[in-house]
Amino acid sequence: NAGVTQTPKFQVLKTGQSMTLQCAQDMNHEYMSWYRQDPGMGLRLIHYSVGAGITDQGEVPNGYNVSRSTTEDFPLRLLSAAPSQTSVYFCASSPDQLPSTDTQYFGPGTRLTVL
Amino acid sequence: AQKITQTQPGMFVQEKEAVTLDCTYDTSDQSYGLFWYKQPSSGEMIFLIYQGSYDEQNATEGRYSLNFQKARKSANLVISASQLGDSAMYFCAMRGNAGGTSYGKLTFGQGTILTVHP
């Protein structure tokens, strides 16, 4: 049971390049989310999914796309990287419904730098 | 909309002493959950403690307790008997329960950096 895995751990891009951050979980969780963490700020929600085929926007969705073709995977795509997207990206998953006390399980993060 | 406010950018505490990290929140949801996470310098997010809005007792998990004052909309984290390994960034977060989609969405505060001195 690996939990939530993210690849790559580090990435450097040039402005305008595109790439996909991978996220996978093996806990059969329905809910998956992507957050970004900027210096001096807490995590902010980019996109989330409540199940395969269902996604929705979070607080800061611009410049990112997601899809959820399987329960296990939730990739985040940067369409045309910009320096403002330099950040640490966290993927998280959580089970649906109760118990509501259950927390989200976070991946180890991807540190992205856009030059 | 939900909002979490952590007003202490940094806190210092002596080893073995207790420390309180402040968190206030704002929400229109009747039912919600409050979380505290620890983020050490290695970067991972570690879940510490949870408080439900209808829980009558304050949550406790080992050396961590959550001082929940619903009327004041505060959910302060108390760490007793601080250890050097407690030095980290601490985040308060909230999840609404107004419908199933809320389980995928957390709102975070800006965090408090805790430094434990020997």
Description:
The complex is a heterodimer of chains A (115) and B (118). Chain A is mainly beta. Chain A is 0% helix and 49% strand. Chain A is built from no helices and eleven strands. In chain A, strands 2, 4, 5, 6, 9, 10 and 11 form a seven-stranded mixed beta sheet that branches. In chain A, a hairpin with a 2-residue loop joins strand 5 and strand 6. In chain A, 37% of the residues are buried. The model of chain A has no long low-confidence stretch (mean pLDDT 91). With 118 residues, chain B is mainly β. Chain B is built from no helices and twelve strands. Chain B is 0% helix and 51% strand. In chain B, strands 2, 5, 6, 10, 11 and 12 form a six-stranded mixed beta sheet that branches. A four-stranded antiparallel beta sheet of chain B has the order 3-9-8-7, with no helix packed on it. A two-stranded antiparallel sheet of chain B has the order 1-4. The model of chain B has no long low-confidence stretch (mean pLDDT 91). In chain B, strand 5 and strand 6 (46-52) form a beta hairpin. Chain B is globular. The interface between A and B is medium-sized, with 30 and 24 residues.
